[in-house]
Amino acid sequence: MQYTFSPKALTEATQVYLVSKDTAEKHLSQSLRDSLKFSGKYKQVAYLPESNSIYIGVTKESSVKSLDVWNEVDFYELGAAVVNAVAKTSIDTFTLQGFAVAGKSQNVRQEALLRFALGMHQAAWKLDIYLADDKKKSKSLTLSLAESESALKTLEMERELAALATGVTLTREVVDLPPEAFNPSTVVDRIRAEFEGQTSVEIKVLYKDELEKMGMGAFLAVGRASVNPPVLSHVIIKPQGEVKKRIALVGKGLTYDCGGLDIKVGGFMKTMKMDMGGSATMFGTMKALSLLDLEHTEVHWISAFAENMVGGNAYKSDDILTSYSGQTIEVINTDAEGRLTLADALTYATLQNPEYIIDAATLTGACVRALTEHFTALMGNDQGLIDMLQETFVEEQEKTIHVPMSEVLREQVQGDIADLLNLGKDAGMGGHITAGLFLSHFVDQTLFRNPELDIQSPKAYKWAHLDIAGSAYNKGKNPIGVNGATGQTVRSLVRFVQKIDQQ
Ligand code: BES
Ligand code: ZN
Ligand code: ZN
């Protein structure tokens, strides 16, 4: 564990105070404010060596009026700002003070504190196993609560914090790992290692021969040219009590995407180790959930892992693939491979008969162009599920925008000589939406035509799709000062599953 959390205030620890503009004006003299260049403004940090204290400003200046639900004070970012401000010092032991979120209930304070601590933890973590220089490595932090905050339910909070910190870090780590370390040949060992000894977790692995027999023609085509054969993992977390609900989480698992024969050029290949970001998101979510208790909800995580490579046996544009669902797909571009692997993984997910299916995928460049690296695109076929997810994303302050998956565009992915096309006819336009529409064909069993599947009463499953192409990985530094994998969406997915479990 990379941090320790102590419910009791530590002597010697650097005291962290959250200071609003009002508090700053009331309690700090003008000359002190001037010398510290600190007025209580959002994310301003001041270190006072004499009293071994850090002040962090929490007051957002009112900006031009807008309807931005993402403009609230973000305690995760604030926690990160504190750690980034002292990154070059040896300070690593903190006592958190003054978590009085004005006028808010105890629960809100507790959540703010948890998020602040998590932000501190994430800002201190980076992938450092390849570095020699200790100064560049992750920091281990020790956090504690001031006596005045001891009324907060700290033990429960500590458990939640540990679960989220472990889950988010796992997501970030596996995204940042190079493709030689995390690929279809190594992933199963990593999954087994993470859940080792946890009796509530069951792991099933389907290898190439089995997948061929099952008819996963879309998934297998994508992974064909790699020396690391495709593999499908299915991890199940069992609840403590009787199973009343099932949720299926599906993640895009391209451990490398060079584009295939439609090879990526001009620098677009660099960073494509992150094309398993959807799987990593679900892996981290599962890890966190496995450390928390679920009463009645069984959670299934399914990922089809492959590398999209070139070679004499690579799949080609013009190929017509038969998916696990039986629907045929004409390949228009081998770089639109994620949806092919997801098609078969989603079909497999429907066979678990879940109440909800949620997928996460670094699916389209179009999503990044439309929404930037800040935002996830949320699509789906069920308004209730979308509303519940969107509400959770707002609560967790993980930037996500609902994008309508309009029927107007469906004909874009419908083929002439095969059922579907793997790329919209207007290739460059609304690619994140046409990709979502393509996927929707694989959660609707009424469209399936693989006789081997033996589906008794076919139905369209309630499904949501998260295009995290921008939000999973930031090329520059993101709002918490992190370069590379962000771990964004794990918090919301964990919370969503907990909410369903508590319903
Ligand atoms: N993995 C990429 C999408 C992507 C792009 C993720 C940028 C993260 C950052 C996906 O497989 C892909 O290559 N999409 C292409 C398809 C197109 C060339 C047919 C795209 O959207 O640009
Ligand atoms: Zn691609
Ligand atoms: Zn891809």
Decide which structural class fits the backbone: alpha/beta
User: Average pLDDT value?
Assistant: 94
Major sheet attributes: 8 strands, mixed
Strand order across the largest sheet: 7-8-10-9-13-17-14-15
**Strand residue percentage:** 15-25%
- How many beta-strand runs? 19
Tell me the helix content: 25-40%
Shape descriptor reads: elongated
Ligands: ligand BES, zinc ion
Write down the Rg: 24 Å
Count of discrete alpha- or pi-helical segments spanning 4 or more residues:
14
Uncertain ranges: none
C-alpha termini separation: 32 Å
Question: Your description of this structure?
Answer:
By secondary structure, this protein is α/β, with parallel strands linked by helices. It has 14 helices and 19 strands. A hairpin with a 4-residue loop joins β3 and β4. α3 crosses α4 (about 105-125). The radius of gyration is 24 Å and the shape is elongated. The two termini are about 30 Å apart. The model has no long low-confidence stretch (mean pLDDT about 95). Ligand BES binds next to α11.
Attribute tags:
503 residues, alpha/beta, 8-stranded mixed beta sheet, 6-stranded mixed beta sheet, binds ligand BES, binds zinc ion
Q: What topology does this entry show?
A:
Blueprint: E1 3-6, E2 14-19, H1 21-27, H2 30-36, E3 45-48, E4 53-57, H3 75-85, E5 93-97, H4 106-124, E6 141-145, H5 154-176, H6 187-194, E7 201-206, H7 208-214, H8 217-223, E8 231-237, E9 245-257, H9 277-290, E10 297-308, E11 320-322, E12 328-330, H10 338-350, E13 356-361, H11 365-371, E14 376-380, H12 383-395, E15 400-402, E16 420-421, H13 431-440, E17 462-467, E18 473-477, E19 483-485, H14 490-502
Parallel strand pairs: 1-6, 2-4, 2-5, 5-6, 9-10, 9-13, 12-16, 13-17, 14-15
Antiparallel strand pairs: 3-4, 7-8, 8-10, 11-12, 14-17, 18-19
Helix pairs in contact: 3-4, 4-5, 5-9, 8-10, 9-14, 12-14
